[in-house]
Specification:
single chain, alpha+beta, about 20% helix, globular, disordered C terminus
């Protein structure tokens, strides 16, 4: 999609044809442009598979407890198997610390000052039939002028996101607060005033914590999203950044780690993923693209016959779109974990409107008692 010049201005009639029901105060039209979307869980899964193909050893549920040092240099880590409780010492010439919002904990082992400002972003999931958004929509929240988006995803519509300092325990899974729910619902009803969306319409919600670099900005939304790579006594920390620059970030970290390992490293733009073998021609192009995006080079192992449907309990962590503690149909032969959509161009547009006085969105909100609706999950 790089270098494509296909954006255009849509007048009011065209805008409302693209997004029926979109009618915020003062709407005059929209800027339409192509964008892309991906599934972060599947992207990580495919990158891990490529690492394994290149000889990497992958360990899950193995937490680094502390660093091993000698003569002021990091020489390894002490890790703990979360399933058995056993600890293991692993020697290494360098350690890459890419632990997201937890990066400062490991950095404390070399006496480094805190670097991060954890920010929480929360989302609502609405049924498509309740808010039938067929195009991604980006706009400014009427209360504080922050960007908010709607976009279709796996048969549902995602609404997000908030941007708040997360001062709670990072070891406790982040969850949306009632104030954030109200904030996002206000955005929905401002853009689609006849939809009358309430908390009872929400099928699920989820939150995450961003490892944003603390650059001293008072407003959380204005904090830099640039990434930082630091070599501190052989501990190479990668923090900040965004999903769209993950490869550049990784190469920056490897460039610092390589000298410690005694290996040469040069950045390149070679294809990241191993080409996938062709699928049988009877599958449609859309199905072939989707299977390739989900499974990559191992898609040949995916069972492609028509399975029987069965119902099973689907845990919250497996699919945030499904909702906490809900039951949803899953197909026999489908690997566990959240399904992924193929990265593909998606039309998006920004609604334009007459400016109004912005209101202040609180920098932090305090969780309140239940919302009175059993539809909301953490």
């Amino acid at each position: 999609m790089a270098g494509q010049q296909s954006h255009y201005y849509a007048d009011l009639a065209t805008t409302q044809a693209l997004a029926p029901g979109l009618a915020p105060p003062g709407l005059r039209g929209a800027l339409v442009f192509p964008d892309a979307k991906t599934d972060d869980a599947r992207l990580v899964w495919r990158v891990l598979l490529e690492a394994q193909r290149d000889g990497a050893t992958l360990l899950n549920y193995m937490a680094v407890e502390s660093l091993q040092t000698a003569n002021g240099q990091v020489t390894g880590v002490v890790s703990k198997d979360s399933l058995t409780g056993q600890t293991h010492t692993v020697q290494a010439r360098t350690i890459v610390n890419a632990t997201g919002a937890w990066a400062d904990r490991l950095r404390a082992g070399v006496g480094a000052a805190p670097l991060l400002r954890p920010l929480r972003g929360s989302h609502l999931v609405l049924p498509f039939w309740r808010l039938p958004v067929a195009q991604s929509i980006s706009f400014m929240h009427p209360k504080d002028g922050r960007p908010v988006f709607f976009y279709p995803w796996e048969g549902a519509v995602l609404v997000g996101t908030t941007d708040l300092d997360h001062r709670l325990d990072l070891d406790v899974e982040a969850s949306i607060t009632p104030a954030e729910v109200a904030y996002l619902l206000d955005a929905v009803n401002d853009q689609f005033p006849t939809a009358h969306i309430t908390s009872a319409d929400v099928s699920a919600c989820y939150a995450g914590v961003r490892p944003v670099i603390d650059d001293g900005q008072q407003d959380a939304s204005k904090a830099t999203r640039d990434h930082v790579v630091r070599d501190e006594s052989g501990l190479v920390t990668l923090a900040g950044g965004k999903l769209t620059t993950f490869r550049l970030m990784a190469q920056d970290a490897l460039a610092l780690a390589a000298p410690h390992a005694g290996k040469a490293f040069a950045k390149d733009d070679a294809p990241l993923f191993t080409p996938a073998p062709p699928l049988k021609a009877h599958w449609s192009p859309a199905v072939r693209q989707r299977l390739t995006a989900r499974y990559g080079a191992v898609r040949g192992r995916v069972e492609c016959r028509r399975p029987r449907r069965r119902f099973a309990h689907h845990p919250r962590h497996a699919d945030p779109v499904a909702g906490a503690g809900r039951r949803r149909p899953i197909r026999s032969g489908t690997p566990p974990g959240r399904p992924a959509a193929a990265p593909h161009p998606a039309r998006a547009f920004v609604a334009t409107r007459r400016p109004g006085p912005p209101a202040t969105y609180p920098g932090a909100v305090r969780a309140a008692p239940g919302l009175g609706s059993g539809a909301l999950g953490g």
